[in-house]
């Protein structure tokens, strides 16, 4: 008898049988409030009827129109539809299956387009687990330890982690940009640097929103040195942060945008977007994949875009995100062990610390486990695993947010009490 490899590390013991909206139902019929959304994927909720209908229709028409062999309409239609929501000028798209693959594609594009090798990432970043993307990932030991040597050419600059430094956002931003300037005249000379790759909210690294001035500082340096600004919107895209794209909280237009997760409501699909003039510098055929731009995934993505627009999920993410942040702050006010509450839109987190301000992963794990016992599914993150994050589907109602907060308050009291 075969068994699943212990390589698989699962955050909860739930066996999910069925999903509907913000809920998952397990084998015993128990209902779980899913504030993980499949790691920020099921933005339209589990099995949104319009996504289901679109995918079912496509399954009976054409499942696999392999895109390096033949073209198919769902891919063409999706390209057109994404053109309506992408930042001005990012009018050329290439599709793959996962966030990591799209990150890899952006590295190739940046190296081809600039003729330079180095990619600068920011400490605490998560860009994926494939070997190129892993070289850009600094969110924790498990993503790097024992698998090297990783792809050369990745340089790491500080991300403005104000809470960790005990600084204001302004101080942290000033420090991070100064260190970046130093890096560009030392370890990664500007003339050798192809791109900055940045998350608008440091995701797996601890749910730390990039201060707008930081992203704007990157844009300014990118322009000054002919470096590309690649924004990894894999987790922050499609309304998650209360704007359609996470980078829209700052005045910093990306040269390349990476997207996946929320794009297709759970079907594997990712894309990179860039100006056509930039994409033309990539070598045709240098990217691809058997399943890239799968027809069913594209049909689901088209329906996803329509649901986001028709149900104003971006607006709802802003409103419910504020409600969630407010409630999390109230819980934190009763528990000094929650040292920080932060986030953008429906990407919110609580950071657990010991009385002397050190990361407290054990407390976070207890709160996470106590929440799961009460039927509230959450995830941890952060290099030390001491941050508990909430990423509900964007269809979540105020009442469901309040339900989640009540369960959270109870779980935290149990875990810390
Ligand atoms: N970039 C970011 C910002 C992510 O959050 C993730 C996934 N958590 C990835 C890339 C990698 O995506 P995937 O797991 O689909 O390869």
Automatic annotation (TrEMBL):
It comes from the Bacteria. Pathway: Amino-acid degradation; 4-aminobutanoate degradation. Coiled coil: none annotated. Its cofactor is pyridoxal 5'-phosphate. One of its GO terms (molecular function) is pyridoxal phosphate binding. InterPro entries: Aminotrans_3, Aminotrans_3_PPA_site, Class-III_PLP-dep_AT, PyrdxlP-dep_Trfase, PyrdxlP-dep_Trfase_major, PyrdxlP-dep_Trfase_small. Its EC number is 2.6.1.19, 2.6.1.22. It catalyses: 4-aminobutanoate + 2-oxoglutarate = succinate semialdehyde + L-glutamate; (S)-3-amino-2-methylpropanoate + 2-oxoglutarate = 2-methyl-3-oxopropanoate + L-glutamate. Keywords: Aminotransferase, Pyridoxal phosphate, Transferase. Belongs to the class-III pyridoxal-phosphate-dependent aminotransferase family. PANTHER family: AMINOTRANSFERASE CLASS III. This is (S)-3-amino-2-methylpropionate transaminase.
């Amino acid at each position: 008898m075969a068994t699943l490899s212990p390589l698989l590390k699962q955050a909860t013991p739930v066996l999910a049988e069925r999903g509907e909206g913000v809920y998952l139902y397990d084998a015993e019929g128990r209902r779980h409030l899913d504030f993980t959304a499949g790691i920020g994927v099921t933005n339209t909720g589990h099995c949104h009827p319009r996504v289901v209908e679109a995918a079912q229709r496509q399954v009976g028409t054409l499942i696999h129109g392999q895109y390096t062999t033949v073209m198919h309409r769902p891919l063409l239609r999706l390209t057109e539809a994404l053109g309506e929501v992408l930042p001005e000028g990012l009018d050329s798209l290439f599709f793959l299956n996962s966030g990591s693959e799209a990150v890899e594609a952006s590295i190739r594009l940046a190296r081809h387009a600039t003729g330079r090798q180095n990619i600068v990432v920011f400490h605490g970043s998560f860009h994926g687990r494939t070997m190129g993307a892993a070289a850009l990932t600094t969110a924790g030991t498990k993503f790097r330890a024992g698998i090297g040597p990783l792809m050369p050419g990745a340089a790491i600059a500080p991300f403005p982690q104000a809470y960790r430094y005990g600084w204001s956002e302004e101080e942290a931003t000033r420090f991070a940009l100064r260190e970046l300037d130093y890096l560009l005249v030392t370890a990664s000379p500007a003339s050798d640097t192809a791109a900055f790759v940045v998350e608008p909210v440091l995701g797996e690294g601890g749910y730390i929103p990039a201060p707008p001035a930081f992203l704007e500082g990157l844009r300014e340096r990118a322009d000054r040195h002919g470096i590309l600004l690649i924004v990894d919107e894999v987790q922050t895209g499609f309304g998650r942060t209360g704007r359609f794209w996470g980078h829209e909280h700052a005045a910093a237009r990306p040269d390349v945008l990476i997207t996946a997760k929320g794009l297709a409501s759970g079907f594997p699909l990712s894309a990179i977007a860039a100006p056509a003039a930039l994409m033309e510098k990539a070598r045709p055929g240098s990217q691809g994949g058997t399943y890239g731009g799968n027809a069913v995934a594209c049909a689901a993505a088209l329906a996803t875009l329509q649901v986001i627009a028709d149900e104003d999920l971006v607006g709802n993410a802003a409103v419910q995100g504020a409600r969630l942040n407010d409630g999390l702050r109230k819980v934190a006010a009763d528990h000094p062990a929650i040292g920080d509450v932060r986030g953008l839109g429906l990407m919110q987190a609580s950071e657990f610390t010991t009385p002397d301000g050190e990361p407290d992963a054990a407390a976070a794990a207890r709160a996470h486990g106590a929440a799961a016992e009460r039927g509230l599914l959450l995830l941890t993150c952060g290099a030390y695993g001491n941050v508990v994050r909430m990423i509900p589907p964007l269809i979540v109602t105020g009442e469901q947010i309040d339900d989640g907060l009540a369960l959270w308050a109870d779980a935290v009291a149990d875990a810390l009490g």
